[in-house]
Amino acid sequence: MQREDQVQLDFLTAAMPPDVWTLPAELASVDRLLGDPRILAPLLSKLDPVRGRPSVPAAQVLRLFYLKERYQLSDRDLIQEVSDSFHWRRFCHFGVADRLLHPTTLTYWRRRLGSEGVAAINRAVTARLQAEKIIRGRRLRMDSTVIEADIHHPTDSGLIADGIRRVTRVARQLGATLEGASVPIRDRARAIKHRILAIGKVLRRRTGEAVAEVRRITEELARIGEAQGRAIAQLVDSAKQQITVLDPSRARRVAQVEQALQDLQTVIRQSRAATDGERIAERVVSLADPDARPIKKGKLGQPVQLGYKVQIIEAEDGFVTGYTVSMGNPPDTDALGPALDQHRAHFGRDPDIVATDRGYDSAANQRDCGHRGIKTIAIPKRGKKSATRLAEERRPAFRRAQRWRAGGEGTISRLKRKYGLRRSRYREYEAVSTGIGLGIFTHNVRRWAQRHIA
């Protein structure tokens, strides 16, 4: 059942001196903004208005999300800090004697909201900023960046070893639930360890023969994985015969084992394709985060990054008005048109100025911006430029727009340093998108609060 806020104070809270509860200026400003019913609406929409037990108040959940992303705390540390601080209790609308929620409740709410729910919260914040005329939608700048996945550096041998360990673990958990004699599952840990150590010794040689030797050892690991997979497939067949309608937990375990087998087969195929010199599309770089992909952005210090590509769309004063998260590395040119459509949906108009880097340049994008009536299209042209084009890019309006565009790099840097967009602690696309949305929500709300303090 929906609960918007905690309105009734307990006796101890009411008896506290007012000075103890006075919020710092930033938290007081944020508290006023988050009191907007339109911002709470996406959370309330996830709950039935009448049926069920009373939920955790939406206002408390939203404020906890703000503090978590603002100070980059884990769920458990966040609840502990709120419990120990009068100011944070007051900000989150908890009384002195109120019992705080369990850390797993925040995980539940993130899953329930999902990326679409968090995007709706961000749209509500943008609407509030527009209503206060802080942003008017006259300018648009966008840039892309990569948020790194929380995984170790992938190798073919390491991925196969991880796959064997994982499928063995979940298969043994399934086997423990079966009745009667089950298929024995061998422990392959020693065989895996010997071959991983052998690869480390071979790589010290730094010769051409070392590469061939590493591929040979990797193939041995692949054969071990195939043998383990065949044994576990027999276990899965045996388990399916014992599944009943009243036993959904065993069905879930079977699904886990089948998924682990599929992932193991995928990394084995990848390894053999690499040995044959084939190009691998949609390469899997982690079994813990199967949606992460290798992304090349042309950085000298980090030629390949592992994670997700994010498009950041900004309006005036550094407020982020839109974002998209992609698996892999789609071209930037495909992102500009949807960003302009999204901008028009938010503000009811196209911007007067569009500023991007040359990665967004294409004939289609230039034409689209022209048809929309955008006055200053500050998108540098790729490749060799004609005299007419050089003159266009030297115009004062174009150069001013490009100087403003450079400020977007600062916004991305701030999001990475302070709001968790450097390396995501979540796994898989949906959870990562939700975390990115909460980081951007916190960035916008804090920036709004700082304007009111000033």
Automatic annotation (TrEMBL):
Domain Transposase InsH N-terminal: 27-112
InterPro entries listed in its UniProt record: Transposase_11, Transposase_InsH_N
Signal sequence coordinates: none
Domain of life: Bacteria
Residue ranges of every copy of the Transposase IS4-like domain listed in the record: 305-444
UniProt-listed Pfam families: DDE_Tnp_1 (PF01609), DUF772 (PF05598)
NCBIfam families: transpos_ISNCY_1
Record's protein name: Transposase
Protein species of origin: Sulfobacillus thermotolerans
Lineage: Bacteria, Bacillati, Bacillota, Clostridia, Eubacteriales
